[in-house]
Amino acid sequence: MNFMVFRTLMLNCLPRNLRQKKQGEGGKDLPAEAKKLQLNSAEELYAEIRDKNFNAVGSVLSKKAKIISAAFEERHNAKTVGEIKQFVSQLPHMQAARTSLANHTSIAELIKDVTTSEQFFEHLTVEQEFMSGIDTDKVNSYIEDCIARKDPLLKILRLACMQSVCNNGLKQKVLDYYKREILQTYGYEHILTLSNLEKAGLLKLQTASRNNYPTIRKTLRLWMDDINEQYPNDISYVYSGYAPLSVRLAQILARPGWRSIEEVLKMLPGPHFEERQQLPPGLQKKRQQGENRITLVFFLGGVTYAEIAALRFLSQMEEGGTEYIIATTKLINGTSWIKSMIDKLETSLF
Questions:
Q1: pLDDT digits (tens, 9 = 90+) for 295-318
Q2: CA neighbor of 60 nearest in space, from 80, 38, 45
């Protein structure tokens, strides 16, 4: 079975080749309109780069550009009528590939403008420090600076929630400080948002004397220091070092099984169980040699594209032996998830 994710990308800050120019009266150029691109696995180049780490996309596009350039140069070697006819028959596909390359190169340039910025690097560094367990038990200076600059509230909430999760909750004085600064800076109407995050267990008070996250991180190998983003050998490449917990659990379930991490599973929020269903004799099918086991992974509440990429990577691993089918109630990311919990008080008119 094959599940394809269809995405439509709307680009507003467009490089030149992604701008659709229109001419008005007198031949004058009108303002450029955003161009919509439908991205799905039917497109050869997108299928190749969709699961890559953003740091690995550039080299793939460079190689593809050389291949396409070499293909067009073959026209000089076509001497006979048959060779010319063969080249002409391949021309539509080559032109489509060149257009696709130009589009994805422009998109990559837009992404690179963000990922090479100082702001992105600072933000990523703080996230990686939290995931590594560095300074999670005190007020973070970067979050303080972001609040002082009045950066977007979603950014503040994401970082504060990440620090809370990685520290099994925040100390009373740290939690009170964040709440006070957020309400005084962004408005007291966000008190309901903070309450929603607390109910969800994302921004909470540390009640246990021991932080279980370091044990969970070490046992499940959630953080990998020496990750190869270009040629990955572990699912942690999708987050440049962090292995999605959900996908790591699916990996361990396949081999060696959850019984090997029974104590760690008890530390995770929510119940867990493992049940094996016996099929009637008439429906039992013996797997042929080399045939992969099929596992359905259902995400209630939503799944990120990075988790999908990580599961695809597991399916492609030679020693995996498992094909993963992904089902979910929604496609989400960190921003959309936190945004769904924002609840502003309506201003009453008297």
A1: 999 999 999 999 999 999 999 886
A2: 45
CA distance to 77, 128, 161, 223, 231, per residue, from 211 (Å): 68, 18, 15, 16, 34
Contact 192, 199 (CB under 8 A): no
Question: What are the start-end ranges of the H helices in 132-228?
Answer: 141-148, 153-166, 172-186, 191-199, 213-219
Report yes or no: 324 and 315 within 8 Å, Cβ to Cβ: yes
Cis amide leading into 281 (omega within 30)? no
Residue 49: helix, strand or coil by DSSP? helix
Q: Which two tokens stand for residue 43?
A: 């497109």
Q: How far apart are CA 326 and CA 119, in angstroms?
A: 34
Backbone angles phi, psi at 27, to 5 degrees: 80, 10
Instruction: Specify the pairing of strand 293-299 against strand 322-328.
Output: parallel
pTM for the predicted model, two decimal places: 0.83
Q: Give percent of the chain above pLDDT 70.
A: 88
pLDDT of residue 41: 84
- The maximal CA–CA distance of the chain, rounded, in angstroms, is 86
For tokens 């995931």, name the residue.
Answer: 131
| Cα–Cα distance list, 3 to 163, 283, 301 (Å) | 34, 25, 18
pLDDT of residue 12: 46
Q: Which two tokens stand for residue 133?
A: 């367990």
Q: Mark the ranges of the chain whose per-residue pLDDT is less than 50.
A: 1-14, 349
- Quote the pLDDT of residue 22: 55
Q: What is the pLDDT of residue 28?
A: 56
Tell me the torsion sign for CA atoms 310, 331, 299, 339.
positive
| Ramachandran assignment for 59, one of left (phi > 0), alpha (psi -120 to 50 degrees), beta (any other) | alpha
Count Cβ atoms within 10 A of the Cβ of residue 29 and give its class: 0-12 exposed, 13-18 middle, 19 or more buried.
exposed
Between the CA of residue 265 and those of 106, 257, 299, 329, 336, what are the distances in Å? Answer: 44, 12, 17, 24, 27
